[in-house]
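Narrative of accomplishments. A recurring question from our advisory board has been how the design workflow behaves on a single, concrete structure rather than in aggregate. To address it, we present the structure tokens for one chain from the evaluation set, followed by the sequence designed for it. No filtering or post-editing was applied between the two.
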């Protein structure tokens, strides 16, 4: 899968949001939605306290957050993941393959 320049820059940068022991609440979801709307891509770091308190794996957490904000997970590394806006597949004008 080809990664866009914006996603690569986000991977290299600092996380936009850190999710800690208070968990994934409405404020976190609203912040993620706002950043996705403005930037198109967001980097989220899960703190060890969250994983310890809730006993979830990073894949489960990333999928849940992406589902709540109507995005898609692009990359997972350690306790950090990248979510982008969902892409819309374009149909060809001829209707062929």
């Amino acid at each position: 899968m080809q990664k866009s320049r914006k996603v690569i820059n986000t991977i290299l940068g600092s996380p936009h949001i850190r999710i800690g022991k208070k968990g994934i609440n409405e404020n976190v979801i609203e912040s993620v939605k706002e950043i996705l709307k403005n930037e198109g891509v967001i980097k989220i770091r899960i703190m060890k306290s969250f994983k310890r308190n809730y006993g979830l794996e990073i894949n489960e957490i990333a999928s849940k957050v992406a589902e709540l904000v109507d995005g898609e997970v692009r990359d997972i590394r350690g306790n950090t993941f990248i979510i982008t806006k969902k892409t819309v597949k374009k149909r060809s004008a001829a209707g062929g393959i």
